[in-house]
Design brief:
Elements: H1 6-11, H2 16-54, E1 61-64, E2 69-75, E3 80-86, E4 89-94, E5 98-103
Antiparallel strand pairs: 1-2, 1-5, 2-3, 3-4
Amino acid sequence: MNFITPAFAQAGGATGAVDIMTQMAPFAIILVIMYFLILRPQQKRAGAHADLVKNLRRGDTVVTAGGVVGKISRTLDDAEVEVEIAQNVKIRQLRHLITEVRAKGEPVKE
């Protein structure tokens, strides 16, 4: 009893590359979908946050990552700002931990 016919054995070598491409196509499609649904929006959010942090100025009402709401009283350097959270109560806050600008204010007069 012969399980492999000569015709079937001869056709096996020609379809090897096609089989690999057929098996890899779903992985390629999944990677493309993952890029458009996960990676691309994340890059856009990171770019928007970088613009937000770069454009901070005195007088802006901000929300920090810890949930503290305050007004920027001055910028210390490229990494930190001073936020007034109550009258005569000021904290130093890292710029990248500011998550939201509630109101763009006019610069505070000194």
